[in-house]
Amino acid sequence: MREKCDKTIVRKDKKKFYIEVDNDLSDKGYKIASVMNGSNKIDINGKRHKIVPLDQVYIYGKIIVTTEKKSTAELYNEGRCVVVPSGNGLKDDYIKPARTDAVDRMRKGEIGRITAAHLIHLAQAFVRTQQFVEELWTADTINDTINPALKTVKVGYSVEPSEENNVKKALTILRIKASGYQIVSGKNSVTFIFG
Fold it and tell me: How far is CA 34 from CA 18, 58, 60, 106, in A?
């Protein structure tokens, strides 16, 4: 059975939302790790590192937090219907099984479309963070470029406040208890931080 579209959803522009997440996390003490000239290099402790397609990387005290951000404009189409990622852009072998599982659960009626979408995006956040960690901790960088105090990397997933309960449903399916994550609530965003 196909879910009805929700005409009450207010779709927020992706770029605007990303800036709001940056502002909300900045207000809570998270510092944006600078990206070098818009390239795929990130500056941590004055050294450049290649980054995988992450939406942003923050430093909070002695912790590196990667983030995947999802605005309502990315989650819902023009008709206010949930967009479940097609899989065409999911190149990573680890994300494809997550999509298959989410879509199978959705087709069986176990979960709704929005929960399926969040399951896929959460998988993407975890996989991209793992790729980031692997790149950051290669043998030639760990000893001379990373401050030992910055060796903890956590996964962040930012959504608009209206999506908080939908993400919690997805986390329940993933068997991630509330004790397994922290929520950073801002004026315009909610960021789940894992690890």
Answer: 15, 9, 13, 39
- Pairing between β-strand 47-50 and β-strand 41-44 as defined by DSSP bridges: antiparallel
Q: State the pLDDT at residue 36.
A: 43
**107-117 burial code (b ≥16 CB/10 A, e <16):** eeeebebbbbb
Q: In angstroms, what CA-CA distances link 156 with 28, 34, 102, 139, 191?
A: 14, 17, 20, 25, 6
CA distance 59 to 193: 13
Helix (H, G, I), strand (E, B) or coil at 69: strand
The predicted model scores a pTM of: 0.83
pLDDT at 55: 81
Q: Report pLDDT digits (tens) over 72-130.
A: 888 887 666 777 766 555 455 667 788 888 889 988 999 888 888 899 889 888 888 88
Q: Hey, what amino acid is at 173?
A: I
Helix (H, G, I), strand (E, B) or coil at 191: strand
For the CA atoms of 107, 111, 115, 118, what is the dihedral angle to 10 degrees? -60
